[in-house]
Design a protein that fits this description.
Beta-Lactamase, 3 domains, elongated, 338 residues, Helix Hairpins, 8 helices, disordered N terminus, Heat Shock Protein 90, alpha+beta
Length: 338
């Protein structure tokens, strides 16, 4: 809100006339507009001078004037107001403040159209409610029968030994990972926890331990001395989740015998594999939630990677690795110590 001093009313005309983006009005105790600016109103494209000298009851429908009048009364009485009001199908955010000019109290009003912002906020609220409902369904209606199936599998493994048990266990583990990914996307999204110094090498080893167990033929290599990996500012759990998903992606698309290489960049690190790679025309799409070229892939993994990168204010780029496979470069990472 602009500041008005104890000066003649004409002293404010230039400020009102050239007010940027919105409309600024000076009104008196009778709710009569004294000055209106800018000269051409940005919302209605009408001439501001046509409003000067008229009261809110003369300018607006009675319903609108009735909404404004108590706000104007409060302003003249010395109270500032802030509120949204719909007019002619558009939403306007209005702020008023009392001002003293030559001993008299006037009201200064600023209004700016916020239709798109308010609609976006309403859409986001509805989306969040749908996501929360969906997450509840996934968490309860899918997790419960999954737990039952896992429990029955354990009992079956005690009673007999068959090759079918391993296939069932693999399928159930995959379902569990999908549920966890969906819940993270639905409930956590861009949020990260405490950002603190994290040894990158420690996070890599932890993440690889979670991925390599069922894929003994896959190999993790370091492009340079592992001991030279830096300590970076990150949320440790989310960083491990990012690394796990990139490792899983490499194994899913490169096969059990894939070799994955990790090394540092000037302001970050990269992970690359010697698998089939990602075609140029698809590299802009790989972080979409529904993108996957693996036969049983969901596409959630790389979408989660992208969200974790964004939450840290990092950047991620996809290119071709030195062995022809996929290479993910993560930059903008703050290094604490080498």
């Amino acid at each position: 809100m602009a500041h008005f001093s104890d000066a003649p009313i004409e002293g404010h005309r230039a400020l009102v006339t050239h007010f940027p983006n919105g409309v600024l009005v000076l009104f008196d105790a009778e709710f009569r507009y004294q000055i209106v600016g800018p000269e051409t109103l940005p919302f209605s494209q009408s001439d501001a001078s046509e409003m000067v000298g008229k009261t809110v009851h003369e300018l607006f429908p009675e319903e609108t004037a009735t909404q404004l009048e108590p706000k104007f009364q409060a302003t003249i009485a010395g109270e500032s107001c802030s509120f949204d009001m719909e007019y002619v199908g558009r939403v306007h955010h209005i702020e008023t403040r009392p001002v003293r000019i030559e001993g008299d109290t006037y009201g200064a009003l600023v209004t700016q159209e916020v239709t798109e912002e308010r609609q976006t906020a309403r859409d986001l609220e509805r989306q969040n409610k749908r996501l929360d409902k969906f997450a509840g369904i996934v968490s309860h209606d899918l997790r419960n029968p999954l737990n039952v199936a896992q429990g029955r599998l354990e009992l079956a493994q005690e009673e007999c030994d068959t090759e079918h048990h391993d296939a069932i266990a693999t399928a159930l583990d995959r379902m569990q990972r999908i549920i966890e990914d969906v819940l993270w996307l639905a409930r956590e999204g861009q949020d990260i926890g405490l950002v603190e110094p994290v040894a990158l090498g420690e996070a890599i080893e932890s993440a690889w331990g979670m991925v390599s167990e069922p894929t003994d033929d896959a190999e993790l290599r370091y492009g340079s001395d592992e001991s030279q990996l830096p300590t970076i500012e990150a949320d440790y759990d989310r960083l491990c989740q990012l690394l796990e998903n990139l490792f899983k992606n490499a194994v899913e698309h490169g096969g059990g015998g894939v070799t994955i290489t990790v090394d540092t960049l000037a302001d970050g690190f990269y992970i690359e594999d010697d698998g089939p790679g990602i075609p140029d025309e698809e590299r802009d799409d790989v972080f979409d939630p529904d993108y996957s070229t693996a036969e049983d892939g969901t596409g959630f993994g790389l979408s989660i990677v992208k969200q974790i990168v964004n939450a840290h204010d990092w950047e991620i780029h996809v290119t071709e690795g030195s062995g022809g496979g996929a290479r993910f470069e993560i930059t903008g990472v703050e290094v604490v110590a080498e």
